[in-house]
Write a structure and sequence with these properties.
Blueprint (H helix, E strand, L loop, with lengths): L8 E6 L8 E7 L2 E7 L12 H4 L2 H4 L9 E2 L8 E2 L2 H19 L4 E5 L5 H15 L4 E3 L6 H10 L17 E5 L3 H4 L1 H12 L3 E5 L5 H4 L6 E3 L6 H14 L5 H7 L2 H12 L5 H8 L3 H13 L3 E5 L1 H4 L4 H14 L9 E4 L6 H6 L6 E2 L3 E2 L3 H11 L11 H10 L4 E5 L3 H4 L3 H10 L2 E6 L11 E4 L8 E4 L4 E5 L11 H11 L9 H11 L8 H7 L1 E3 L43 E6 L24 E4 L1 H6 L7 E6 L3 E8 L7 E5 L7 H4 L16 E7 L4
Helix pairs in contact: 3-21, 4-21, 4-22, 5-15, 9-12, 9-13, 9-15, 12-13, 18-20
Bound molecules: iron/sulfur cluster.
Length: 693
């Protein structure tokens, strides 16, 4: 704790980093933060926090924050500080000019999973109602869009099914493609507590993660080769079906029986057995059979997964395969069981809920539905376009083709976080007006014409929705240092563009969301103040929210089994690129580090290292700490080696928190077949000694 004086006032707010959504008491002295104290009544964290949230205030007051709007005619010109009014006028004239010249669909925007529900709602409203098209997408495109597709297909809605509290009722936890100890540490502590009480842990991950290595966990680790999730999950299903471990009563009552039978026949094929898939997946068949038996028969089984599931060419198929397993074993619809995406960003769930996808209005309702469109048309007093808009990668392609010329980016550094950096550069350079709305002059801003300063979570009111669908208040404790909270910026920008949105406070935006979204009809700031938080659906049927979903039936009616044929990624190893690279995070840093590198957390992280097995290192004459060149078909970068047997021979691993690492220079162009989520987690690479950058 860094003490800078005694507090004079405080407010309870929500951490703006990961999807756990820890509550903090921000203690203030005037406009200065004295300290951030984990809030004991916070329902997601119960008085705990991690080192990221504790020091999160650091970036709010960091000297590199941009506090004045800036504009420039060309990306080759220097930035010019201007008034807010001039910046809005400039941006509006550019966007209007673009639409006149290239048509209504030539502009669009990207919402931020870091901003509040109310702020993302406003951006999608501006685009749909103000721009007159559906060219809105979210940074969730590059992380959890397969969750949206996979869970909506099988269960009927795209959200985690279980509350954090009910981990205390779990007997078996399966963690796939996630490292909660590093990325969701406060929830990981609750998992570990239950594991110490005797619950069993199965970890499916190419790397021996901190969850596996934590003492007393007795984890059964299935160290699969990157890119083989679907083969492993189908092999687990094979064991469950062929050994008679299906919960037939549950399936008959709750799922489509005919579809189940087709699925059972499919997974029973000999080619899906653990033995038949062992060479392909790298997983010991004995361990895989044991894992299947533990999950199916060990009591309440809960599955937690992360980006190691979604960021693959079969990301959506993998989410579906997970849902199939949960339905087949009856591990869904009561406390202690479920399918739970561990959301990386604080408000990924919320930004998706708020209609940030080009095909869905708030509440996951397809834009082509006449009734729902009419509902929004009545409220917004506009005619809405029924055609789904462009996804982020389609926006980039259209920009290069010369048909998409204006982009408003809310709180997201797409140049650092999207794949195939050179393609993104080409797309941004092709546009006539890029508006970046952010805290810092990020990499994307190098290609922007308008910079609108953003505000931090400490400077505004609103709500975030965490990984367990928990809607929590964000409370303003500081006057916005830039002069305007993000929701006010979007409203002013919309007005300059000729589309008036009138709200005096974010609570009024939430009231509008509640009026238009069936899963939110019971949500209001008054209720959040009274109860502390609520988990959606929160409506007449569940006035205090819904901790566990699908209790009496799936949202879609009958649970849907879908066949999950394993199709190997097009990214292949070969003589030139014989190793497979995968990526992850460390505890003290968050994503590309734009915030955490501007806090006290810098003391725990100075660089990203490349983990490689001693066998691979020796073959290449690499010693611990040496500089190495990491090259793929797409590009190359340089970083230092860390020799460890946490990774298997043939697999290497790095984090991507430091900008110098340039992880996305080397990632491929492949993406999930259903959602275009980039395949960040599998890249064929070669490593050779280097003298350094
Ligand atoms: Fe909690 Fe996540 Fe924030 Fe850490 S980063 S304090 S786990 S919300």
């Amino acid at each position: 704790v860094i003490e800078i004086g005694q507090p004079e006032h405080s407010a309870v707010t929500t951490c703006a980093y990961c999807g756990v959504g820890c509550s903090f008491k921000a203690e203030m002295r005037g406009e200065e933060i004295v300290r951030m104290m984990p809030y004991k009544d916070g329902k997601a964290n119960r008085g705990h926090s991690c080192v990221k949230g504790r020091f999160a205030y650091g970036y709010a007051t960091h000297k590199e924050r941009i506090l004045k709007p800036m504009i420039r005619e060309s990306i080759n010109d220097p930035w010019r500080e201007v008034s807010w009014d001039e910046a809005f006028g400039f941006a509006a004239a550019k966007f209007k000019g673009i639409q006149q010249k290239y048509g209504r669909d030539s502009v669009g925007g990207i919402t931020s999973s870091r901003c509040t529900n109310e702020e993302t709602y406003l951006v999608q409203k501006l685009i749909r109602a103000g721009f007159g098209n559906n060219n809105v997408d979210t940074c969730a495109r590059v992380c959890h869009s397969p969750t949206g597709y996979g869970l909506a297909t099988t269960f009927g809605t795209s959200a985690g099914t279980q509350d954090f509290d009910s981990v205390e009722d779990s007997d078996v936890m399966v963690v796939i493609g996630a490292n909660p100890a590093a990325a969701h540490p406060v929830f990981a502590s609750r998992m570990k507590k239950r594991l110490r009480q005797g619950a069993k842990l199965i970890v499916i991950d190419p790397r021996r993660t901190e969850m596996v290595e934590s003492p007393h966990m007795n984890a059964l680790h299935l160290p699969l080769l990157p890119g083989t999730n679907v083969a492993v999950l189908t092999a687990l299903a094979h064991v469950i079906v062929t050994e008679g471990l299906v919960n037939e009563a549950f399936v008959r009552e709750r799922c489509d029986w005919d579809e189940f039978q087709d699925w059972a026949e499919f997974v029973s094929l000999p080619k899906h057995s653990p033995e038949a898939t062992a060479i392909m997946t790298g997983v010991n068949p004995k361990d895989l059979r044991e894992a299947a038996r533990i999950y199916a028969t060990g009591g309440n089984g809960a599955i937690y997964y992360g980006l190691g599931v979604t960021e693959h060419s079969q990301g959506s198929t993998t989410v579906i395969a997970i849902a199939n397993l949960a339905m087949a074993t009856g591990n869904i619809g009561r406390p202690g069981v479920g399918v739970n995406p561990l959301r990386g960003q604080n408000n990924v769930q919320g930004s998706c809920d708020m209609g940030s996808f080009p095909h869905e209005l708030p509440g996951y309702r397809h834009i082509s539905g006449d009734a729902v469109r009419e509902l929004f048309e009545g409220a917004w007093k506009v005619k809405l376009n029924a055609e789904p808009g462009l996804r982020i990668p389609n926006m980039f392609d259209a920009a290069i083709e010369g048909t998409f010329m204006g982009l408003y980016v809310q709180g997201e550094d797409i140049l650092q976080s999207d794949p195939n950096t050179s393609h993104v550069v080409q797309a941004l350079s092709s546009m006539e007006c890029v508006i970046v709305h952010d805290l810092f002059l990020n990499e994307t801003a190098n290609y922007a014409h308008v910079f609108l300063p953003g505000s931090t979570f400490l400077e505004k009111d609103g709500t975030f929705t965490n990984a367990e669908r928990r809607i929590q208040r964000v409370r303003k404790v500081m006057t916005p240092r830039n002069g305007m909270a993000d929701w006010e910026v979007t409203i002013a920008l919309a007005k300059a563009m000729g589309f008036e949105m009138k709200y005096n406070h974010p609570s009024e935006i939430m009231d509008e969301i509640a009026a238009l979204t069936p899963t939110f009809t019971g949500v209001s700031y008054a209720k959040l103040d009274e109860l502390g938080s609520v988990q959606w659906p929160c409506n007449e049927k569940a006035p205090e929210g819904t901790p566990v979903m699908h209790m009496d039936g799936f949202v879609r009616g009958k649970g849907k089994f879908v066949l999950t044929e394993y199709i190997a990624t097009d990214e292949r190893t070969g003589p030139r690129f014989p190793l497979l690279l995968t990526t992850g995070r460390i505890l003290s840093q968050y994503n590309v580090g734009a915030q955490t590198r501007r806090t006290e957390n810098v003391v725990w992280h100075s660089e990203d290292r490349l983990e490689m097995h001693p066998h691979d290192a020796e073959q290449r004459g690499v010693r611990d700490g040496d500089w190495v060149r990491l090259a793929s078909r797409a590009g190359e970068t340089t970083l230092r080696a860390l020799i460890t047997d946490r990774v298997a021979p043939g697999v290497v691993y790095t984090t991507f928190h430091h900008p110098d690492t340039q992880a996305n220079v080397i990632t491929t162009e492949f993406s999930d077949w259903a959602t275009n989520c980039p395949e960040y987690k599998v890249t064929a690479v070669q490593i050779s000694p280097s003298n350094g950058p």
